[in-house]
Request: fold
Amino acid sequence: MFEIIYKEIEENEEYKNIIEKVLKQCFIEEKMENSKLIVSITLTNPETIKKINKQFRGIDRATDVLSFPMFEKEELQEKIKNEDFKNEDILGDIVISIEKVQQQAKEYEHSFERELSYMIVHGFYHLMGYDHIQEEDKKKMRPKEEKILNNLKIVRK
Reply:
């Protein structure tokens, strides 16, 4: 279901446990729990995510989370509908700046768990083909994110 790559930061059991719990709920919610899809998650620092952001998006600044889907939304929906996940396949890659997660948890006055969980869910739904640039798209994506977090009782403090 997932693999974690630690790039320029220490491995951490707490991060792994949060990721596992949240992704499991995401897969259940999207009826993909029996799939062989894998999400690759890279946990890193601001310098590394800045380089990745510049290389792949042409944006020369650090960010909190980046997502790189492997499927178009329609292609993925068709695979889910037909339960076409017999073979192991990569759903996509999520890159998260742990330092940024810590900063934002303080800034928004909620727990580190809540902020990391949100980054995972947010990245997951980008892999599923959702976006939030247009208000209409945001209205589809945000409720999905909140439903996962509420189901896990990971709420804003």
Summary: The longest helix spans residues 13-29. The chain has one domain: 2-151.
